[in-house]
From TrEMBL:
It comes from Willisornis vidua. This is Ribonuclease P protein subunit p40. Pfam families: Ribonuc_P_40. The gene is Rpp40. The lineage of its organism: Eukaryota, Metazoa, Chordata, Craniata, Vertebrata. It comes from the Eukaryota.
Length: 359
């Protein structure tokens, strides 16, 4: 029997400075539509500063709307009230990207539908075969630009899309929704969908302190690491995955779960602060958190570096920008910042087999 080949994974790493005028950190956060889990780890920290704690607690609520017909997202009342007045996000809830019809609304105003062949043919809307459905296409991607100038209420394009989604092949989902409106006046998502079954949700926040944690030694200018002096970005990324998933770093012969150990050189820190936020977390809030984490080093701190990790939804139809995302073995699409005391940072972006290379 031939050994099974592990699925392909792709990790892209880059280095910059948080205050460099050409740094891409905020742009790359914005281009990754939404996070389902955000974690930050601060070595040599036992108590979170109040400002940082306040940013975490102000991460913002989101909404779960049950049995929402997708044609309501292409109605011009919705487009004018939310899509054109801020950043509006929507994602189908508890749908499986490789089995079900799914949809996502991006802050750019693009509505992305990932549908099976039968649904595609019934809708009759223009799309393209999924890149990951094999030689015989069984899944299709439809992109509708809600902000296109030609997509106005009297246009043939709008009439056709509305007819297809409302009458020809009605599609109904449970949706997660969030809106960053930067103070715009008008209805709220709660009031707009008051006739639907809508519920406001708050992200779940957990704080914990890790004791006597083995941490890799890092040098901000050595992305590839340096023999006997520092670990590489890839080694650190693997170590961080073990820590966030509570994998033992002891490499004991009696362990049947893991033989992993912390890469060398390493050091033991007495305590490390770990915060994990789970929910429907929009990029604007992640950027605010990232900025506060950079400000953490403003006062004298023992921490040589800290990390911010964001996991995207495994069953989202997109990863970065409008890049098609597939599940395959695990649906991975995530990124991680390692921020150093001098505000140099490493950015690590990872995806699975059914994804384009991160931007």
């Amino acid at each position: 029997m031939l050994p099974t080949r592990p699925p392909r994974h792709l990790l892209v790493c880059e280095r910059s400075h948080a205050r460099h005028p050409r740094s891409r950190h905020a742009t790359l956060v914005r281009e990754h539509a939404c996070g389902c889990r955000v974690s930050f780890l601060i070595p040599e920290c036992g108590l979170l500063p109040e400002v940082l704690k306040g940013t975490v607690e102000d991460i913002g609520e989101y909404y779960l709307v049950r049995n929402l017909s997708i044609h309501e997202l292409v109605a011009h009342e919705f487009i004018d009230a939310f899509v054109k007045k801020g950043s509006c996000y929507a994602l189908t809830y508890k749908t499986k990207i490789d089995q079900d019809n799914t949809a996502a609304l991006l802050p750019t105003g693009k509505l992305i539908l990932s549908v099976d062949k039968d649904t595609y043919e019934e809708l009759g809307l223009q799309g393209r075969p999924s890149r990951y459905s094999g030689k015989k296409a069984m899944r299709y991607i439809i992109t509708i630009d809600l902000t296109d100038a030609s997509f106005h209420p009297e246009s043939k394009k709008h009439t056709r899309v509305l007819w297809a989604l409302k009458e020809k092949k009605p599609l109904e989902f449970d949706f997660l929704l969030a809106w960053d409106n930067t103070g715009a006046e008008g209805p709220t998502l709660m009031s707009y969908f008051s006739k639907n079954q809508i519920r406001a949700l708050k992200p779940k926040i957990t704080f914990s302190t890790l004791r006597d944690l083995q941490c890799p030694v890092l040098q901000s200018n050595e992305l590839q690491g340096k023999a006997e002096e520092s670990c590489s970005a890839e080694e650190h990324f693997e170590w961080l995955g073990a820590v966030l998933n509570q994998v033992s770093l002891d490499n004991k012969s009696s362990s049947f779960l893991s033989t992993y150990c912390c890469p060398e050189p390493n050091t033991v820190v007495e305590k490390a602060f770990l915060c994990t936020i789970t929910g429907f977390i929009i990029p604007e809030k992640i950027i605010q958190l990232l900025e506060q984490l950079c400000c953490y080093f403003g006062d004298l701190k023992l921490s040589p570096w800290l990390t911010l990790t964001v996991h995207g939804f495994a069953d989202s139809p997109v990863s970065w920008r409008e890049n098609e995302h597939g599940f395959h073995k695990g649906g991975e699409n995530l990124y991680n910042f390692v921020i150093f005391k001098n505000l140099d940072y490493w950015l690590q972006m990872a995806v699975g087999a059914h994804d384009d290379c991160p931007p």
